[in-house]
Design brief:
The protein is of the alpha/beta class. It is 35% helix and 17% strand. α6 (167-175) links the parallel β8 and β9 (190-193). The longest helix has 19 residues, at 80-98.
Length: 210
Amino acid sequence: IMGFTGTAYVNNEYFNDVIYRYSLRQAIDDKIVKSVDYVQKDDSSNKLYEKFQKIYHNHSKKKRQYSDIKPLTILITQDIKKAKGLQEDLIDFLMEWEKLNREEIEKKVLVVTSHKDHRSNVVQLEYVDDKDNPIEWIISVSMLTEGWDVKNVFQIVPWQDRAFNSKLLIAQVLGRGLRLPIGHENPQPSVIVFNHDSWSRNIKNLVDEV
């Protein structure tokens, strides 16, 4: 019996019975996944509106760069309660920023957790890459049992450091954003990881090790 996994970690400890490892770094160097741009740092001192502006700027930049597809941004929280709260805050921001009504904005934001209110949303992940699908923003928790096959993720936002503070969580979250979009394999695209400045260095070190 042989097992395969992309997350060979228990928290920060690597499995001790691995006989072959193909690392994330090797996959990036071989250009079979996106590269990771974790230079982006947030120093907005918890000013929510300012933080959303910076995230939106990155999102808009990717939309201009890949105008023939639909880039997605994923925001990662540590638990379901925070995912629900972030959904409301993001919708409020987008309504004001884009000058659209709530019904129009709600179509752009998808929350994916194990909560019964969100289970049906998992099915929608199959279609979020479609350009005529309105979803641009996905809010999720760091620990999810479901695998994703979404290719158009161009920005990942860990909302709290606890959502991104172990090699296991980083491997799981990055795995949702590294797939290459069809038709854009060359030149190699990159996914932005938008970190808070106070814990950016720690995340960079963990990403390097993963």
